Amino acid sequence: MRILELLAQAPATATLLAKELGESTGSTSYHLRALARAGVIEEDTERGSGRERWWRRRPPGYLQIATGADDPEGRALEVVMWTDMADRDEEALHRFFERLPQIDREWRRGAAIVNWHAWLTVDEAVGLAEHVTEIVVKYRDQAAKDRPGAKRVFVSFRALPWVEGE
């Protein structure tokens, strides 16, 4: 999941990813090949030369977690993936609240935590996620990063079916 997150920021090689993740190049190479077989990343043939292979995320810009599997192993994998995504959200929230007193006033004004209830079909929920992704993707690339005053911002979006409590 971290590799996918990093490739969403910019294309990279196994070596660059290994340095960022504190892993071996062999490990990142293995996972890159697995992600390519799964169809979520692809080789960026416009970059690199010789043995240097660059990789990039494939559209869509977000990962649909649901595997569609009805077997116990597939469902277990789905739970692990959802849990990882939720843990990243929780980490971002914890860091924000822990450091809130040190965050300057303008960036506190720019922070947002929002939620609503909406009535959607499955296709509308997918379309909503795709639309939000299109908006966010334009702020992810190097040109966006290099704008004056631009700061790295964690953007999280959830569209989950509401499960009634007992």
Question: Summed up, what is this model?
Answer:
By secondary structure, the chain is mainly α. The protein has seven helices and three strands.
Q: How would you sum up the major sheet?
A: 3 strands, antiparallel
Query: Strand-and-helix sequence, N→C?
Result: HEHHEEHHHH
CATH H-level superfamily of the domain at 2-57? Winged helix-like DNA-binding domain superfamily/Winged helix DNA-binding domain
The first-level CATH class name of the domain at 2-57: Mainly Alpha
Output the structural class.
mainly alpha
How would you describe the shape? Answer: globular
Report, as a whole number of angstroms, the end-to-end distance.
33 Å
**If you average the pLDDT, what whole number results?**
85
Give the amount of beta strand, in percent.
5-15%
Side-by-side strand order of the widest sheet: 1-3-2
Number of helices, counting only DSSP H or I runs of 4 residues or more = 7
- List segments where confidence is low: pLDDT < 50 over at least 5 consecutive residues: none
Q: Could you tell me the radius of gyration in angstroms?
A: 18 Å
How many strands in all?
3
CATH architecture assignment of the domain at 2-57: Orthogonal Bundle
State the helicity in percent bands: 40-55%
CATH-defined topology of the domain at 2-57: Arc Repressor Mutant, subunit A
